[in-house]
Amino acid sequence: MPTEIIENTSPSMLTDTFGRVHDYLRISLTDRCNLRCTYCMPSEDMQFALHSTLMTANEVFSIAEKFVKLGVKKIRLTGGEPLVRKDAHHIIHLLSKLPVELTITTNATRTDSFLDDFKKAGIRSVNVSLDTFSKEKFLSITRRNDFDKVWQNIHQLLAHNFHVKLNVVVMEGVNDDELLDFVSFTQHQSIHIRFIEFMPFPGNNWNIQKVYSYIEMLEKLKQNFDIEKLIDAKHSTAKKYKVKGYAGTFAFINTVTLPFCGDCNRLRLTADGKMKNCLFSKGEIDLLSAYRNGEDLDALIFQSLAQKQKQTGGQNFDWPTENRSMIAIGG
Asked: What is the DSSP letter of 10?
């Protein structure tokens, strides 16, 4: 078990064939979730990974440590729902020893039990998935009746001065009528809303007609608010805006209609230890089996990076993509 914080002062060595430098790793802790969001989890034939095939807490740390030594400077924990893992507290503690910015994406059903863990680990930014302010729609989208708990925990995070980002997957005819409500929420709350275009994954019944595009969203908001464009951070996936005079901000993640792959700095590690060089990549490289066999991981990591496509994993959104479901990959 690690006892010292590891130093990382060298620049990232994780550069792909297009010259993109990768210093951001997203680690899925589990493919399980206590919600059943329709755009993330197939409604039928969902088979979860056996526990023996998942990375243990120490394996998560050791493989993450390898990436950090190669130049990763930011790690985001995802799922499924990462906080349903029984050893999530321990994993957060272990990863806090690495010299990285540690963040998490969660559905906020359990964050009230992790506030102290987040603070001790230096987690100050929490992404919360919430697609509606309506209890009825929440039940329809998530197939669970947990809206009140999520809403309470979001306000608790804000009260404890966490930087909260709400991830809103916008779907035509489902929740596109709530855009104004979400932006209005930023008037008095220092919160960041991120409107995400509906993305195609196996089992989520995606089609292009259900995509409410970034351009449509922006035009609708311009008609109702006095908005201004903000400067986007380097490698940002989101186009950031705010309503003049409002406390919070909002942004658009336009993966489908205007991919932002040219500046990508992200790599992914699934809960079962597979490296994906892109959310939409068909191929995966099994780092966990290699680690358990005592093999050096550097060559495999560089192999995966060399195979990274220029855009959207080399796939076209005009037809069903070849991939795992979103929940099996990690958000």
From this structure: S
CA–centroid distance for 215 within its chain: 22
Strand partners, 42: none
Q: How many angstroms separate the CA atoms of 254 and 260, rounded?
A: 8
The CA distance from 48 to 299, in Å, is 29
**Cα separation of 241 and 225, whole Å?**
11
Helix (H/G/I), strand (E/B), else coil: 101 = strand
Cα torsion 323, 70, 297, 125 to 10°: value is -50
> What is the C-alpha to C-alpha distance for residues 31 and 41, in angstroms, rounded to an integer?
10
**DSSP state letter for 21:** B
Q: What angle do CA 222, 223, 224 make, to 5 degrees?
A: 90
Return the pLDDT at 204. Answer: 58
pLDDT digits (tens, 9 = 90+) for 298-313: 999 999 999 999 987 6
Report the C-alpha gap between 31 and 33 in whole angstroms. Answer: 7
Q: Which domains can be identified in the chain, with CATH numbers?
A: 24-329 (3.20.20.70)
CB-based contacts of 238: which residues, under 8 Å, 6+ apart? 194, 232, 251, 252, 253
Question: How far apart (Å, rounded) are the C-alpha atoms in residues 278 and 58?
Answer: 25
What are φ and ψ of residue 54, in 5° steps? -90, 155
Q: Residue 194 and residue 179: Cα distance in Å, rounded?
A: 11
Cβ atoms < 10 Å from Cβ of 187: 12
**0.85 cut: is pTM over it?**
yes
For 197, phi then psi, to 5°, come to: -65, 140
